[in-house]
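Here we describe the complex-level prediction in full. Unlike the single-chain runs in Section 2.1, the two entities below were treated as one system.
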Amino acid sequence: MARISVDTGKCIGSAQCVLAAPDVFDQDDDGFVTVLDSAPSGEAEATARTARGICPAQAITVQD
Amino acid sequence: MTSTDAAADLVPFMMRRPGAPFPPPEYEDFRTKPGLVKAALPSGETVWLVTRHEEVREVLTDPRISSNPNHEGFPRPSRTVGAPSADDVPGWFVSLDPPDHNRFRKALIPEFTVRRIRSLRPAVEEIVDRAIDQMQANGNTAELVEDFSLTVPSLVISSLLGVPKVDRDFFEEKTKVLVTLTSTDEERDKASEHLLRYINRLITIKSKRPGDDLISRLLQGGLLTPQELSGVSMLLLIAGHETTANNISLGVVTLLQQKQWISDDRAIEELLRYHSVADLVALRVAIEDVEIGGQLVRAGEGIVPLVAGANHDPEMFERPHEFDPSRSATGHVAFGYGVHQCLGQNLVRLEMDVAYRCLFNRIPSLEVAVPLEELRFKYDGVLFGLHALPVRW
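The structure predicted for the assembly as a whole is:
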């Protein structure tokens, strides 16, 4: 299981995390990232890692 | 290599793509060299070319590297390549660095959330269906670039901005002039002036009678001035038109070459990666000394991170020159990377998806009407694409 945290100050609302890991991330009404599941496991954890890798603002941290 | 080397010893930039939608073959050679490659622009200015995926991402996220063309040394490959600065056009926020850039991004991202873009699907479908109706009404042949690929994004943007339906023909006609090969500079300048005047009038109208559209909401949001909103609207129009059209047309050709066409999320990502139409769009300049890929880049030196180079880097994507709709192309940088990554990317994905689904479902016998080697690609434009795409059914 991994711990997910996001830096909303860095977020640019590109929503790449929402597309890559819809069970873990969402956007609020202003378009900024929100975390739906801060301790994903299995498939959701894998998608969260993908999201971290493609976030253009490098706003996602995944802690083991 | 130092900046005192004679320009004659440097590789000339820009390179042409070969006779297929692949990046210039020189990029493969550059990628194997240590450091970056210094190239000479036609003006004699030199720039650093970046072709490896990892380093393209580094350049696009390093705060010591700027998007602001006002900085000394910002690359100017030609008259048509290179953005105006936000001093020239208020609201031209692609040319701003953080923190100046942040206010614009913040104002605009609610308009491009995944939810908002999904809600646009029926409107995009209606636009695409109408374009196909028109093509079918005209017979069993069409020139897809003009009749479809340019029409769809123009109408989508006009709908997004809140251009009334009665004005959409005018809007479409003027936007096409901006991107059509045969337009003269004078015609382009005139069309651009007409559009700007129209958008300014629209902003005045929307400030008195707001509607359910981007311009009205941004006016009410109060983060941007009406003058900035005018620049933002022109930017959205220019950034979202030819880029999307080129992706749609190239995608039709590539998907038709597959025995069985597929349009799903993976195929769309792979099309974006494979064609990388905006290879030359991200121009940068170092504002402090910075080391990229072991190469010292001095403050004031221009940098061109080549998106098609990154997207065809075999370290990142195996068999990069192969179109493989089953691969995961996630991580491609077709929309750039960093804070300037394309704001409208999810809208582009939607437009491509709807375009292919409707085209291939409604016209299953669609085929390219000329041998593939006769297709006229935009080999020397800023954006890669097709000048024309004759089709029949």
